[in-house]
Design a protein that fits this description.
Layout: E1 6-12, H1 16-26, E2 34-40, H2 47-55, E3 75-80, H3 81-86, H4 92-95, E4 103-108, H5 114-129, E5 134-139, E6 142-144, H6 148-157, E7 162-171, E8 174-181, E9 183-187, E10 192-195, E11 214-215, E12 219-223, H7 224-230, H8 242-252, E13 256-267, H9 276-293, H10 296-319, H11 324-339
Parallel strand pairs: 1-2, 1-5, 2-4, 3-4, 7-13
Antiparallel strand pairs: 5-12, 6-13, 7-8, 7-12, 9-10, 9-11
Helix pairs in contact: 1-2, 8-9, 9-10, 9-11, 10-11
Family: Belongs to the glycosyltransferase 2 family.
GO molecular function: glycosyltransferase activity
Organism: Methanobacterium subterraneum
């Protein structure tokens, strides 16, 4: 088979231990044509130094998923986000001659741009400076199977009108339990998401073709053609719902989201505690997403519903938990979501 070149974009923020395990698993895949791009979202720890030490062979990664492989030093192409956005990078002329397992592009952002724009910086760099046909967004807290990328690309190439492809995602600490089969279904009436195969033991019941409403951002493959037509991730989201929005935008242009059940990864997924920061963005972005993808009449109905939900949650936080910050986060998220305007036209490549 032919092997279209893929840019694998990994976003890091204060998570170098996870990133190194992810990188080592990626460098052991069987797929021969790829470029790894690590975007550091202005980490406040020693992530940059640790990634450089790993590439120099100074850190051996321990994992229950693979045995560390000694390899030649990995050549780092290191830039700032300003450099990759504003200039033509002369070193890129030499990158094609280096084996996939022996190169890494490291882009240091000057601030935390969130999931959406952080990844967009990598996408823009890949499309401008690398001769790639696909972009893969991969969470840094994942470990991948050796054939995961081969299977993703195979599904993307051999099915019509495919916009986004996602793998079978297992829970890292429970290797045979699924987090999600590709993605999720969305109820636009209530702005609710139902992840396919959520926390189910894998007994082969999802080993078949599926078309979710969207592919989860943990691991999502998209072609250059699709990105050039529909644009990148909407940075308004910052975090949460941006993956669903991307796939829905693709669907409006006739592109499907598809689940590649032979592709497997493991995700360090857990029930993290809620914070005002997270609740603000989740509430705001839920409303913003429904507004962008529904009719005015349906959005008006949803607004009444979500106002009741928001007030109920805010009052409960205030009265029963005495948490003023969380209560305020719900209300602020609601009102900001209502007034946000659609910025999709600003994210063309």
């Amino acid at each position: 088979m032919s092997f279209p070149r893929v840019a694998i974009i990994i976003l890091n923020w204060n998570g170098w231990k996870d990133t190194l395990e992810c990188l080592e698993s990626v460098y052991q895949i069987k797929y021969p044509e790829y470029d790894v791009i690590v975007i550091d979202n202005n980490s406040e720890d020693i992530s940059i130094e640790k990634i450089e030490d790993y590439c120099a062979g100074k850190i051996k990664v321990d994992s229950t998923f693979f045995n560390y492989q000694d390899k030649n030093p990995i050549k780092i192409f290191k830039y700032t986000n300003t450099e990759v956005e504003n200039t033509k990078l002369p070193q890129m002329d030499n990158i094609n001659s280096i084996n996939s397992q022996e190169k890494l592009t490291l882009i240091k952002n000057d601030k935390n741009y969130g999931f959406a724009w952080g990844n967009n910086i990598g996408i823009k760099h890949a499309l401008k400076n690398l001769d790639i046909e696909y972009v893969l967004l991969l969470n840094n807290d994942t470990v991948v199977d050796k054939d995961f990328l081969t299977e993703l690309v195979d599904v993307a190439k051999n099915n019509d009108n495919v916009g986004f492809v996602g793998p079978k995602v297992y829970i890292y600490n429970d290797k045979n339990t699924l987090q999600v089969a590709g993605g999720a279904k969305v109820d636009l009436k209530y702005g609710e998401v139902d992840e396919i195969a959520y926390h189910q033991l894998d007994e082969g019941q999802f080993d078949h073709f599926l078309e979710p409403d969207y592919i989860g951002g943990t691991c999502i493959l998209c072609s250059r053609e699709v990105i050039e037509k529909i644009g990148m991730l909407d940075p308004t989201y910052f975090m949460y719902w941006e993956d669903a929005d991307w796939c829905f935008r693709g669907r409006k242009h006739g592109y499907k989201s598809v689940y590649a059940f032979k592709s497997k990864i493991w995700h360090k997924y857990g029930a993290s505690s809620d914070t005002p920061f997270k609740m603000y963005y989740f509430t705001r972005n839920r409303i913003y997403f429904v507004k962008k993808n529904n009719t005015r009449r349906e959005f008006l109905r949803f607004s009444i519903f979500i106002l009741a939900v928001t007030l109920s949650k805010s009052i409960c936080q205030l009265i029963f938990k005495r948490d003023l910050k969380m209560s305020y986060a719900y209300l602020k998220g609601f009102f900001n979501g209502i007034i946000l305007s659609d910025n999709s036209t600003d994210i063309k490549v």
